[in-house]
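Please, structure for the following, as tokens.
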Amino acid sequence: MLIVEDDPALQKFYQELLADPRLRDKFQGVLTKSAEEALKSLNRRTPDIVILDWLLPGKSGMTVPTSGFSGLRWRSWLL
């Protein structure tokens, strides 16, 4: 799971969610703060699900799904 969120309050929420033992056993999560960090993470690994904030500093979150990752298969996107 890749979560892209720049809001500190929501980052804390997602960190607590990912630390929950009920989810930790089912999902390996990565939390990033920008579209650029998300793209770097996607170059390393294809997640099963991406939770993506639209309004990010720098590049918009909407640029991530259309950034030309040929060969990657997206299973789920939550925008």
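Strands lie at 2-4, 30-32, 50-52, 77-78. The chain is about 35% helix and 15% strand.
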